Amino acid sequence: MSERATVPRPRRSHSGDEAIAIDDDATLHAMGYPRKLTRRFRGFDNFAISFTIINIISGIFSAFGFGMGAGGPLILVFGWIGVSVMVLFVGAAMGEIASAYPTSGALYFSAGKLARRHRGAWSWYTGWLNFVGQIGGTAATGYAAATFIQAFIVMQWPGYTVTGQSTVTIITVILLLQALANTYTVQLVATLNRISVWWLLIGMTVIVLSLVLIPTHHQSPSFATHFVNGTGFSNAIYAAMLGLLVTSWTFTGFDGSFHMSEETVKATVNTPKGIMRAIGYSAAAGLILMLALVYAIRDYSATASASAPPVQILIDALGTGTAKLLLLIVIGAMLFCGLANMTSNTRQIFAFARDGAMPGSRLWHSVSPRTRTPVKAVWLAAACSFVLITPAWWSHTAFTAIVSVNVVGLYLAYGVPILLRLRLGDEFQPGPWHLGRWSRPIALTAVVWIAFSSVLFMLPHASPITPTTFNYAPIALGAVLLIATAWWFATARRRFQGPVSYGSPDEVAAMDLV
C-alpha cells in the first residue's frame, strides 16, 4: 500500500445493504485496516450524531448570556447568520476529505495521508488536538447540563444551594450514565441519537411557539439591530467580534460524523452528507430559536445580569411553571449532546490507539467480542472528562479555560487536514463526494475562518482583566502543545510515523472481526 491511500469509489448496487457493506469494507481495506466495528449507522444516524453534538438548544442556551454583553441582539442574530455560513465552508472542506478517507481516525488519519513531508508529526499534533478538544467537549456539555439541572432544582426548591461540589457530583453521575450507554451496544447509541434529533426539533418548536404565542409583549422588529457592549472594552468592533464566539461555541463537534464513518453504511457518501446536513439544519433551526429568545426579552439589563439569562427570559415571558417545563427540554438536549460527544470521542481514541499513538494503545483499541464496541476507550473518555471537570470543585475560571481549549483544539484539528489538502493541490484524490472546481476556494475560506476564530477564542473576553475574568485558554492550549511536543521529541517520533497499514487489502480482509 502506498503512503497516500487511494480509496476506491463504491460500486453501484441495487441488491441491498449487504452489497453496500462490501463496498465499505473494500474502502476500509484499501486504507490498510480490517473491519473491527459493526456497521449499523445509516445515513440518518450519521447525520444525527453531528446534529446532536452541535445541539442548537444546548449551545444557544449555554452561550446566550455572553452574547447579550458582547454585541447584543445585533451580533446574536446577524452574527449567527454570518458564522453559520463560514462553518458551512469548514464542513464542506471536511466533508470532501471524509469522503476520501472514511475512517474512525478521521482528522489525524487524513492529516497523515495528505502531508507531503513529516507525516508522523502532522498526524500526531492533529490527533492530540482532536483528543483534547473531544474530551473538553464531553466535559463541557456535562457541566452545562449540571448547571441547568441545578437551575431547575432551585426553581423547584428555592432552598437548594448550588456549589462546586454539587456540580461535580452531578457531572460525575452524567458521565457514568453516558459511559454505560456507550458500553452496551452501537445499536442503542444509534437509537438514542435518532431520538435526540426529534427531541431537538420538537423541543425547539415547543420553545419557539411558547415564546411567540404566550407572551403579551414582544420587542419591536428593529430590536434585532440593537447593539450592546458590556465587555468592558471601549472598542465596539472588538466587542462585536467577541460576540461571534456564541455561534462558534455552538458549531463544534460535527467531526462526529467523520469519526463514525467505520460504522456507517455507504460511508464515502453518507459521512460528508451527514456533516453538511447537520450544519445546515442547525443553522436554520438555530436562527429561529435565537430570534424567539431575542424578541422575548423584557428587561434587558436585568436579564443580562441574571445567573442564567435564557432561563430568566423563559420566566419573565412565560411564568415559572411553563419555564420549568421548557427547562426540562433544554436539560434533555444537553444530556443527548453529551452522549453523542462521548461516542465520537471514543471512536477517535480507538483509532488513535490502533495506530500506536497513545500510552497503552493495545488496551484502548481493543473491542468487546460481545458488543463489538471499544469499551475500554469508552471508559478512558469518561475518566479523562472527569479529570477535566474536577477543577470545578473549587474554581469556575479554570474550567472556562478548558471549555475554550475544547473549541480551539477542535477547530485547529479541523484546519490542519484542510490546510494540507490545499498544499497538496491537484495531487489530492477526492472520493465520490467532492466539491469539484470549488474545492480549493472553499478550503481556503475555511482555513482563514479557523485561524481568525481561534485567535478570537484566545484573546481577552472581558475588561478589566482580573484573575476571575482572565482568559486562560492560551496558557492551557500552550501547555497541551508543550506536552505533545516534549513527548514527540522524547520518544514518539521514533515509533509513530502516522497512520499505519496492517497489510494489503487481501491481507487485512482476512483480519476482519465483524
TrEMBL record:
Cellular compartment(s): Membrane
A GO term, aspect molecular function: transmembrane transporter activity
Its membrane topology: Multi-pass membrane protein
GO cellular component: membrane
Keyword Nucleotide-binding set for record: no
Residues that span the membrane, as ranges: 47-68, 74-101, 122-146, 166-185, 197-216, 236-254, 275-297, 317-340, 377-394, 400-420, 441-460, 472-490
Keyword Signal recorded: no
GO biological process: amino acid transport
Pfam families: AA_permease_2
Keywords attached to this entry: Membrane, Transmembrane, Transmembrane helix, Transport
Stated name of the protein: Amino acid permease
Organism, scientific name: Streptomyces jumonjinensis
